[in-house]
Every structure is written in C-alpha cells, then in structure tokens.
Amino acid sequence: MSAVTSDKPPLLADTHDAVLANMAQVLAHRLRSLITSIEGFTDLLTDTLATPEQRELALRVFESTASIERILLELQWYARPLQPMVQSRLLRVLLQELLVMLEAHEAARVALDLRISGGKIIRADAMLLRQALFMLLKNALEATRPDSVVQLRVLAEPCSIRFEVWNEGWMPQEIAEKIFVPFFTTKAQNLGIGLPIARRIAEAHKGTLYLATNDPQAGICFALVLPQGEEKANGDALLA
Q1: Does residue 215 share a domain with residue 101?
Q2: Are 207 and 201 contacting, i.e. CB atoms less than 8 angstroms apart?
Q3: Is the Cα dihedral 172, 175, 177, 180 positive or negative?
Q4: In Å, what is the CA distance from 183 to each residue of 28, 134, 210?
Q5: Which of 20, 117, 181, 185 could form a disulfide with 190 if both were Cys (CB 3.0 to 4.6 A apart)?
Q6: What CA–CA distance (Å, rounded) separates 77 from 204?
Q7: What's the domain range around 18?
Q8: What's the start-to-end Cα distance of the chain, in Å?
C-alpha cells in the first residue's frame, strides 16, 4: 500500500504543519508547568495521608501525571525542528541502543531479523533514527497481544537500508488511510503523533516511511527506507 498523500497544495500543507507544530510546542510548555505543580502538591499531600487507601489514590495521581509526561514528550518531538546530524555508525550498536529504550518485557517481544551484516555502517542521525524506530516498535507492540512477537527486519537495498516492523493483524482501509494524519488515533491513551513523527524523521533523512503491507494473513508492515551514500564520508568519524 502506498503512503497516504495530502490533497493540499505543498505550501498550504507546510503552513498547516507549522501551525500544528507551534501549537504542540505551546501546549507542551504550558501543560508541563501544570504537571510539575500537581506532582509537587501530591508529593506534599502524600506525607499527610493516614491510610493505605489514601496513599493508593495518591499513587494513581502520580501514575496519571507520568502518562501525561509521556504525551508531552511526544508533543515536544512533534514540535521540534528536524535537522539531522548525519554521521557513520555501526548498525549493530544502533540496534542495541534501540532495544535499551524499550521496557524489558517489550524488548523480549521484539525479534530481530538482520538480513544484513551487523557490522554494516549506517549513515544517519542516530538519535533521530532510534526515535523513529522506537515509535514504530511501540506502535506495533501496543497494537498486538501481550504474548505476540513483533519483528524488526533490516535489509540492504541498492543505495539504501530498509527497516521493516512487522506485527500480526490488519487495519480497515478507512483507518489505514489516516494513520499518518497528525492526532488521528483509535487508542484512548494515544495522542496519534507517533507515526507522523517517525515519517518526518525519515523524510528529514531524504527517506520514506510507509505502510508496506496490510493483510489479514501476512500482517502489518511499516517500512522505513533511508538512502545511503558511501559507507564512510571523508573526514567523518565512525561512532561505535
């Protein structure tokens, strides 16, 4: 399936995205101040609570603010300008760092399928690429059963490297057409900007991110393709 395209003229689409990004930045800044206040007052209140039930309620407040913090982090990622600092990095190291970003029980569900040498050198902004792959993996993990396996497949293509994230299931066509629209989501606890952020990161690298497979039998596959020039540019240090 090809990537979702916009019917807006390019200038209008860019302006719309800029407005959304600015709004996200303002919201993240203002809400973070409120969350900090709530956490501070709850912490003070906890010391005065007498019963386990009351302390349990306070703990739920902390858990709720932690969820809001994660949403604010996504908003900040969406709002930030993306200017990749491209350097050479060992693919093996980048993937190890990626798995560390996941919770232990989540990392255990990710199966790596390297159809390329782990000693391969990749040219990218490592932090941005890790974040894009992290968001793809989180999306797949949240969309499947807790005991299911999500596959991260890495392949070499002529002048590019292809990352595929596979999971079981499929999406109705009307949902598949909107998955890259900012703030569109079918999940109550999801803000709906993970996939748009991942696509922006891919495009900032002159690459692509699209829904490659959506089939009840084969499952769902998102493909992130990054162009690669020479493995090591002149004067560019290899980051191991």
Answers
A1: yes
A2: no
A3: negative
A4: 14, 18, 17
A5: 185
A6: 13
A7: 10-77
A8: 36
Give average pLDDT by consecutive 10-residue segment, the chain, 240 residues: 43 55 65 73 74 78 72 72 89 93 91 88 94 94 92 93 96 94 80 89 96 96 90 48
Question: Of 53, 77, 101, which residue sits at a domain end?
Answer: 77
- Rounded Cα distance between 173 and 170, Å, is 9
Are the C-beta atoms of 223 and 209 separated by less than 8 Å?
A: yes
Q: Assess whether 17 and 90 both reside in one domain.
A: no
Dihedral angle of Cα 104, 128, 68, 147, to the nearest 10 degrees: -30
Only one residue has tokens 């203002």, namely 30
The closest alpha carbon to 144, from 118, 105, 170, 119, belongs to: 170
90 close to 196: Cβ distance less than 8 angstroms: no
Q: Is the dihedral of CA 209, 212, 216, 220 positive or negative?
A: negative
Instruction: Check: CB of residue 167 under 8 Å from CB of residue 220.
Output: yes
Question: Do both 70 and 92 map to the same domain?
Answer: no
235: left (phi over 0), alpha (psi -120 to 50) or beta: left
The reported pTM is 0.72
